[in-house]
Amino acid sequence: MPHLKFLFLFLLFSLVVLARQDNPVYDKETPYFQKQQITETDLEDYKGNKSFNYTELEAADNWFVKLKRWLRNALFQIMDALFGNTAASGIFKFIFNVVPYVILGILIFLLIKFFLKVNATSIIQGKQKAPEFAFADEEHIIKNEDINALINDAINQKNYRLAIRYNYLLALKELSEHKIIIWEQDKTNADYIDEIEDETIQLNFKHITKIYDYVWYGSFTIDALKFESLKLPFSQLSKLTIHHIG
What we know:
Elements lengths: L1 H21 L17 H8 L15 H21 L7 H25 L4 H6 L12 H7 L2 H10 L3 H18 L11 H7 L3 H19 L6 H7 L1 H11 L4
Helix pairs in contact: 3-4, 6-8, 7-8, 8-10, 8-12, 10-12
């Protein structure tokens, strides 16, 4: 039994000694961390290594981000003008966050609709509708052709859209013959509107221009009944032009 006690004490003493060896005692005068001297030459080695380049480059804003920021700023300016310089909260905060995306979506939709405003049937069939006549023929028609006969031929062929086109060219010819406008190939319809001095004739010409733009450039199909209604303003302008006293 005494031998067991002696053995137990010996083992306990051995464990204590081993534990002290595993935990070395440091000199308090020696710092735990050693200060390292780094020269400019050492830094150059790291500067040339891409692995140590931690510079964060900010990506340039694209058009979408710029447009969204502009819309948001515009809404804030409107809000500030209406309610004063107050921070947006509640429903207004929601509006400021959502409305720019809504407006942007509408703009994109309108752009797509504009660029895709073509004859869908022609696209599906792989065909392109040929123009009924080139715009370069306008001068020849106005100066040399019997436009009234062209109108009647278009009506007989039930091509009422083309008949509207010829009616508009006839109006330009009559306005030019009566010195109300000076017809030129490169002029626009807006130029002729500004050129007309008589207010009544100007208003009537604006009206037929809207009809012409709607029918010709809009590529809308019109029937005989609709044509009879649309040609009345052309007839009225013709009467005003003929009886105009310059």
